[in-house]
Amino acid sequence: MNKALNGVTILDFSHLLQGPFATQLLADMGANVIKIERAGSGDMFRSMTFFAKWVGGSESPNFLAWNRNKRSLALNLKSPEVHAIIMEMAKKADVVVQNFRPGVLAKLGYGYEDFKAVNPGIIYCSGSGYGEDGPYVTRPGQDMLIQGLSGLMANTGRGDQNPVPVGAGLADQIGAMNMVYGILSALYYREKTGIGQKIEVNLLAGLIAHLNQEYVGVLNLGEDFVRPNSGIGHPGMQAPFGVYETADGGYVTIAMSPFKTLYETLEAPALAVYDDLGTLFEKRDEVWEKVNAETKKFGTADLLDRLLAADIWCAEVKDIRKAAEDPQVTHLGLITSYEHPRAGTVRVVGPAIRMSETQPTIDRPAPLVGQHGREILAEFGISAETIARLEEGGDMTVSEA
Known about the structure:
The protein has helices at 18-28, 61-66, 80-90, 104-107, 112-118, 143-150, 170-193, 203-209, 212-221, 259-265, 277-282, 284-295, 300-309, 320-324, 327-332, 373-379, 384-392, and strands at 9-12, 32-38, 70-75, 95-98, 123-128, 197-202, 242-245, 251-254, 314-316, 335-340, 344-349, 396-397. By secondary structure, it is of the alpha/beta class. Strand 2, helix 2 and strand 3 form a beta-alpha-beta unit. Keywords: Transferase.
């Protein structure tokens, strides 16, 4: 199948979420992603899971989520022979991706300058928590930590409770998108000039960039966000923007909508006394309580029908299982599956975009540790004798499907 990134080869040293999600997105687009893992244990995400359970009894849902469409080559990166082999591979590669702590790979001889020396056109994308220099360079850069440091967590949750991290690895996933954005831009630049480059992506910068409107508001308006005690959905917004209860135990979100339209639709004319922008902000907790009392008079489906008929911006709040069965999610084909040699049928979220000529697809399951090591090295001209020696010496792991 014709894909946008056919012919692009990526040496992917990344682990956990940020780098692997980025390279998965590129792999979905047809890039030849060679996942270079640690001999033996592989990517750290292989040993992490949710609910203390394993898909198919042995596989991590975390790893399965971010590593489809890749082949795995598991090597001992400290081995001089392995280093020489990877540098030979680099001569034919287009992109290197890694998200170890700053300096870790460079000490092993896999920094940007090492790859550039053998392939001046190489694009080297490096991900980190806080950047590759500065006072936090040695700190661990994990998603929840960045949510707290960036200001996002202080904006989330109710004012009379602790700040709340969002229920997904948002900083990592934004970091992944920035990696893709940088890599595609660098590929386009190299196509025009023949010049490769180093790309540095960090979680802190990425998440702060996505808080731009919040930073612009605070730094220019002389106000600080204060989380409301009610279900108002953003600390800078007035009522009714928020989450509301329904009669059958459900929840509905109501976004930016004319307040007059809302209270008329709810048949609650007494709410008219709040219909002023300043009042809706200053008394937003009180307004939320009043509106919530009205929404609780309706079942979830009835309330949604009523609000949507009045063109009020609203939606049901769903958990993961219900969202996966949502009719629009089904229509878009967002939930799909692949067959894994050990986990069996794995249900996953498919590519999020549609392309008329080069549609991204899922062609391979997430690999086993080193599953494709022999075929990858053979493709790069490494002899069968060398491959056998690497295996026998413990410098390469090959897991059979």
